[in-house]
Amino acid sequence: MKKHIFPLCIQLNMPSSLKDGDFIKTMELLQSLGFYGVELNVTDFEGVSPDMLSRFLSQYDLKMTMLATGVYAKQEGLSLGSVNEEVRKKTVDVMCRILIPFAEKMDCDLICGYIKGGADAEVSQLKKSICEIREHTEGTKVNLYLEATNHYDAGIVHTVREAAELTDTAWRVLPDTYHMNMEETSMAAAIVGHSSLYRNIHISDNNRCFPGFGGIDFYQVFQLLKAISYEGTVSIEGRVCRSLREDIIKSCRYLESVYSRMETLD
Q1: Where are the beta strands (DSSP E) in the chain?
Q2: Is the CB of residue 262 less than 8 Å from the CB of residue 217?
Q3: Is the pLDDT of residue 137 over 90?
Q4: pLDDT at position 235, please?
Q5: Is 231 exposed, middle or buried (0-12, 13-18, 19+ CB in 10 A)?
Q6: In this predicted structure, what is the pLDDT of residue 265?
Q7: Measuring CA to CA, which residue among 172, 218, 175, 214 is closest to residue 196?
Q8: Which of 73, 117, 124, 74 is nearest to 95 (CA)?
Q9: Over the stretch 36-94, which tens digit does the pLDDT of each residue have?
């Protein structure tokens, strides 16, 4: 496998135990393919300590780059933009008391995608939550990434521009090629126009599978990132089409063809 042009990560669900054989095999595969890190959907914050998790990942030359919150948000019924004030306040409390401290101990950043709110969410409520979180987390090393997601998944923040309008010094935006393919009039404009506001981008094909399983030309995406001298990570995210490890291998082979194409044209 050729060296990845940008540090390559992947989003995975955390198993109930770090002794899970299937998860270990996936870590071994990521190591063999030269992955830089993982974004993990953690749902049991008492079942694993940051120290334990960091030591585990280091065995495979991986680091946790992002704490993903979508699965946990659905499990706990969380929403930063909920019109239900009780739900909104609970979500802010969980962010400040559990999620951000965990991410800080892992020396990683935190994704706010689904947790920003579903169909009942309102921008005014999300703004209120962002202000309250800022008051409780000044000085933290954690960057909070507000992810722009499509209108089927969320009632608010569908475009990268809409996410950018809500960010401040503690927040960044998280572009995702799957969502941008649905919501942006120009994916290229979104990637280039907000390049100062992100250091991670999700790469997912138009069918929500891994890159190489659908119709998005990731050569064009990578060329754009190269043109803006992008220095952040790129993270594979999406649904499994065949099997997880089989999909990872096929996607990496596709990305290798993208790298070769870029080198040839350079």
Answers
A1: 8-13, 37-41, 63-68, 109-112, 144-147, 171-174, 200-203, 233-236
A2: no
A3: no
A4: 98
A5: exposed
A6: 66
A7: 172
A8: 73
A9: 999 999 999 999 999 999 999 999 999 999 999 999 999 999 999 999 999 999 999 99
Averaged confidence pLDDT in the chain: 95
Fold of 8-265: TIM Barrel (3.20.20)
Q: Assess whether pLDDT exceeds 80 at residue 196.
A: yes
Q: CA 134 → CA 22, 55, 107, 122, distances in Å?
A: 39, 30, 18, 19
**Structure tokens belonging to residue 228:** 């803006």
Tell me if 11 sits within 8 A of 237, measured CB to CB.
yes
User: How far apart (Å, rounded) are the C-alpha atoms in residues 191 and 263?
Assistant: 22
If you average pLDDT over residues 139-168, what whole number do you get?
A: 93
For the chain, the structural domain boundaries read: 8-265
Mean pLDDT, rounded, for 150-179 = 93
Give the pair of three-digit tokens for residue 110: 């935190």
In this structure, is the dihedral angle defined by the CA atoms of residues 233, 109, 237 and 123, taken in order, positive or negative? negative
The dihedral formed by the CA atoms of 159, 220, 216 and 12, expressed in degrees to the nearest 10 = -70
Q: HSE-up of 42 (CA within 13 Å, CB side)?
A: 23
